[in-house]
Structures are given as structure tokens and as C-alpha cells.
# Entry
Amino acid sequence: ETFRKQMDSAEAGDNVGVLLRGVTKEQVKRGMCLIEPKTMEVRRSFTAEIYVLKADEGGRSKPFFTGYRPQAFIRTADCAVDVTLPDGVEMAMPGDNLEVDLKLLNPLPIVIGQRFAVREGGRTVAAGVITELGEDSKEDIQEEEERAAKSKAV
# Structure
């Protein structure tokens, strides 16, 4: 339904209310997508081209290093993300454009070409676009399956 009116279909961008059988309210989180199966990849890791905002653009005044853990805002989801700089790059300075590897704390549906913001302490510090989907490790997949099983048991 949309605005208390029954609808037979919805399109991308529509605000809708949906009845999901067999799913609890706790299992649905901000940023999740209602999609046709196999149309998006749910991943933790990806490569992206980012621009690090300068202080006069509202960004950082100091560099960051591999291991930096800000929040990534992808569509309506926000999730902690671990940043790995490319080999040979010691630090990312404000004003830099560079390709980085990112690993989300929780998997999200993502696609190549998708734009996102990197935020820290309530301000945007970088903007990026996904260039490649990473292969999640067996440990990542097992950890997510265990988390999902725990969620169902509650």
C-alpha cells in the first residue's frame, strides 16, 4: 500500500508499506532492499574510487591510514567500514582521489557504479563510487550465516 491506498505494484523510489510473512520486525533493518532474487549482490567487501574532502569543503584536516573505520552511507543504510589503502600509499590526504578497498561491518546489497558517502562524527569526509565487488571470504559468509541464525532464534 502507499499512503493507505492498496496498490498492485510499485516502482523504484516509491514509498510503500509491505506485508512480509515469516519475517519479524527485528529482522528488517534500514537500508535493506526489497528486490527480485539475484538482481543485486549482497557483499561486505568492495573497491571504490573516493575523493577525500578538504577541510574547506567540510572534510578532514588530517590524513587517514589503512585501518581507518568511518561510516559508509549507501542509499539509506549506514554501516561501519574498514578502509585499506592501496599498496605503496601510506596515507590518504584531504584533496586526494584514490582507489581503496572497503569492508563493511555488515553485508549490504551493492552494485558497481553505486555512489556513497563516507562520514565521520556527523560530517561527510569523502565521496565515492563502487568500481568492483570483492569476494567475501568463507569466514565472512559463515559469520553472517551465524548472525542470521541467531536473529531467527530470538
Notes: The CA atoms of residues 20 and 43 lie 23 Å apart.
